Amino acid sequence: xxxxxxxxxxxxxxxxxxxxxxxxxxxxxxxxxxxxxxxxxxxxxxxxxxxxxxxxxxxxxxxxxxxxxxxxxxxxxxxxxxxxxxxxxxxxxxxxxxxxxxxxxxxxxxxxxxxxxxxxxxxxxxxxxxxxxxxxxxxxxxxxxxxxxxxxxxxxxxxxxxxxxxxxxxxxxxxxxxxxxxxxxxxxxxxxxxxxxxxxxxxxxxxxxxxxxxxxxxxxxxxxxxxxxxxxxxxxxxxxxxxxxxxxxxxxxxxxxxxxxxxxxxxxxxxxxxxxxxxxxxxxxxxxxxxxxxxxxxxxxxxxxxxxxxxxxxxxxxxxxxxxxxxxxxxxxxxxxxxxxxxxxxxxxxxxxxxxxxx
Length: 359
Ligand code: PS7
Ligand code: MN
Ligand code: MN
Ligand code: MN
Ligand code: MN
Ligand code: MN
Fold this sequence. Notes:
The chain is mainly alpha-helical. It is built from 18 helices and no strands. The two termini are 32 Å apart.
C-alpha cells in the first residue's frame, strides 16, 4: 500500500488534496493511498466531477445559468485561472469551485491518455446532468419511468465507473477484459447511486428534488408528497422496499467486477464504497426514519467496513453475505416485495457460494 509524499508536492498539488479532504466523505483516504501512477489523475477526476456535482446540486443557481455551466464545464476546466465566485449554500463544496484554478493547473500535467478519459466523461456527465436539471425545471413530475431513473444514474455514476475502469486498464492495474464487460462497471455505479438516492430521499424532498421514479412510487401513493405523510408510513415503507429491491439486483455484478481488479490499492478504492453501500441498503431497508431525516451508518460500522474491504474479495463477499442475511431477516411477509427481496438475497448468497464454496 502506498502513501502520498507531501514533501515532494507542488503548492497546487497540495491545494488539490486540501479540496479533496474538504469535499469527500468516503473517497479522500482511499484516493490518497492509490498506486502513484493513478494518484493525481483520480484525485483530479474526483475534483472535476465534484465541481460539476456542486453546480448540479446548488438549487440557488437559476436554470438559465446552471444549464450552460454544466454543458461547458469541460471547457472551463481548461481555462487558466478559472474560478467560480457565486455564493452557494454549501460552504465546503463552494470552496472547491472558488479555488478551482488549482485544479485547472494540475489537470494540464496529466498524461494525455488519462486526460482524454477525464475530459470525455466530464462532457458526457455535464450534458446528462443538464438534461435532467432542465427537465426537472419544466416538469414537476421529474423522473417518470425506471428507464429514466437508470439513465440518470448512468450519467452521474455509471459514467464515473466507465472513466475509472478505463483508467485502471490504461494503467494496467485491472484486467482488460473489464472493458468488454461494461455492464459490470455500470452496475458498480448504479449500485452506489441508487443507494444514495434511496438514503437521501428526505433531504432531496426538502430541496424539491425527486429521483425516485413515478413508475415505482405511484404503485403506493397518488402524489409524491404523500410518501412523507406519517399516515402513509406503511405504504412508504413498501415503496422503499421496491427501491431497495431494484438496487439490490446489482449485487452479484458488483462482486463479479471486483474479481477483475489486480492491484491492492485499486481493490481498496473500489471495494470500500461498495461495502458501505450494501450496509446502507440494509440500514434504509424498512426504516421509517428515511422519510423524516438523514440516516447514516455509524462511525463504528464504517470503520469495520473499511478494514474488511481492504483485505480481499473473500472478505468483501463475507460482508455482502452478512448484510444480505440481515435484509432477509428484516423482510416482512406483508410487504408486496417480500418474495422478490427474499429471492434476490438468496441469489447474492448463491453467487458467493459459487465463487467461495463453504465445505
Ligand atoms: C472519480 C473517485 C469503481 C467501477 C463526485 C465512484 C453525484 C454516489 O447524488 O454528492 O449528488 O447526492 O453524495 C468519484 C464505479 C461524482 C460513483 C456521483 C467521483 C464506481 C459526481 C460515485 C464521485 C463509480 C457525480 C456521491 C457515485 O456523491 O451524490 C471519483 C467503479 C463524484 C462511482 C455523483 C455520486 C457519488 C456517487 P448526490 P453525492
Ligand atoms: Mn451531490
Ligand atoms: Mn448531484
Ligand atoms: Mn445531495
Ligand atoms: Mn444524493
Ligand atoms: Mn449526498
